[in-house]
Write a structure and sequence with these properties.
The chain is of the alpha/beta class and 336 residues long. It has 13 helices and 11 strands. It has one domain: 3-Layer(aba) Sandwich (Rossmann fold). Helix 4 packs across helix 5, helix 4 runs parallel beside helix 7 and helix 5 crosses helix 7. It is 35% helix and 21% strand. About 1% of the residues have low confidence. The chain starts with a strand and ends with a helix. The protein binds iron/sulfur cluster and magnesium ion.
């Protein structure tokens, strides 16, 4: 059967004063119904741009999009803005890192939660308000009948995040995109919000794309994992396979800089030496080669000369042999 969301050879380019930025450069992935795909990578790896493109929220005047994005049989790259408006907030919804970017200070929380419901279902104001109260209750806001008339500034950070989740889920979307949804919250509230998301996914059956730089959070939330670097996927597989037997040197770097899998995840990642690649002038060959400690294991200068491809299924885009990919991590790089 067709995956619910299928992205094929996606390319997203921005024209800037300095030249063409290849923000996403040949990305393919699938998301199944009811499953969570985690996307990890440093900022600038293309993970947020990919998802804004899925939602059709890129600026059409400065952005070129090529490739295929097929959502439940509908092609989105060629969809009109009108068609995208019908999808957004209805079939696909998004939770952002900062609720204040999604919630306006000028309207009550209830009115903002109710708005997509009125827009997409044609419900009356009264029906939509009732539905907003139900949704506030579902996301764990106490006294929803009263809080529905509060303004965002009367909510705590955690409550605003819950309100944004209520707004995202009010039309029962088939796909929920969560971009660093808990990064701004303290650890306890973060854990509560993640639990809430898991419960609601059970109830609503939505597919989720969960974007983060936090591998501890991803281990808890995702079924499958995509590791992005320089606008490309460099590794993919089930979350267990990728986190326990990673096959790409970039993933090794992410993991070995982690405190301990399943341990304290509040500590920030120690960055991998070197800086993320320029998207204006990406490195030749493997985009990770200027930072990779294993180029010496690959002969013939292939790391800087030849772009490694990513096979389908469980795979890593790297010139190391299958045997090296399996053993180097286990021999040398166990996470601390
Ligand atoms: Fe490192 Fe070469 Fe593999 Fe790229 S292809 S990750 S540079 S070993
Ligand atoms: Mg981002």
């Amino acid at each position: 059967p067709q995956p619910f969301l299928s992205v094929r050879d996606l390319r997203v380019q921005f024209s800037t004063e300095d030249g063409i930025v290849k923000a996403v450069d040949g990305l393919s992935f699938d998301v199944e119904r009811g499953k969570t795909l985690g996307i990890v990578g440093e900022s600038g790896s293309g993970k947020s741009v990919t998802n804004l493109t899925v939602l059709g929220l890129h600026n059409p005047r400065s952005t070129t999009v090529d490739g295929e994005i097929v959502l439940d049989g509908q092609e989105l790259v060629t969809a009109t803005e009108k068609e995208m408006e019908k999808l957004r907030g209805n079939k696909v919804a998004m939770i952002f890192q900062d609720p204040l970017t999604a919630l306006s200070p000028y309207y009550t929380v209830g009115r903002q939660i109710a708005e997509p419901f009125m827009k997409h279902t044609g419900a009356s104001k009264k029906e939509a308000r009732q539905r907003a109260i139900e949704m506030l209750a579902k996301v764990g806001i106490p006294q929803p009948q009263t809080r529905v008339d509060d303004y965002p500034h009367q909510f705590s950070g955690g409550m605003r995040q819950r309100a944004m989740i209520a707004m995202a889920l009010i039309c029962d979307p088939d796909l929920l995109i969560a971009d660093e949804p808990t990064t701004a919250l303290d650890v306890t509230v973060q854990a509560q919000i993640l639990d809430l998301l898991k419960d609601l996914q059970q109830e609503f059956g939505s597919a989720i794309i969960f974007i983060t730089h936090d591998l501890g959070v991803i281990a808890d939330m995702a079924d499958d994992l995509l590791v992005m670097y320089s606008g490309r996927a460099v590794e993919r597989g089930s979350v267990t396979e990728v986190l326990h037997r990673p096959q790409h040197p970039y993933t090794w770097g992410l993991l070995s800089s982690m405190p301990r899998l399943g341990g304290d995840t509040s500590q920030a990642l120690t960055p991998i030496p070197g800086s993320p690649p320029s998207l204006l002038n990406p490195p030749s060959g493997c985009p990770f080669h200027p930072r990779c400690a294993f180029t010496g294991e690959v002969s013939g200068g292939r790391c800087s000369g030849e772009r490694p491809s990513l096979a389908t299924g469980r795979a890593a885009a790297c010139h190391l042999t299958a045997d090296q990919k399996q053993t180097i991590f286990l021999d040398k790089i166990q996470p601390r």
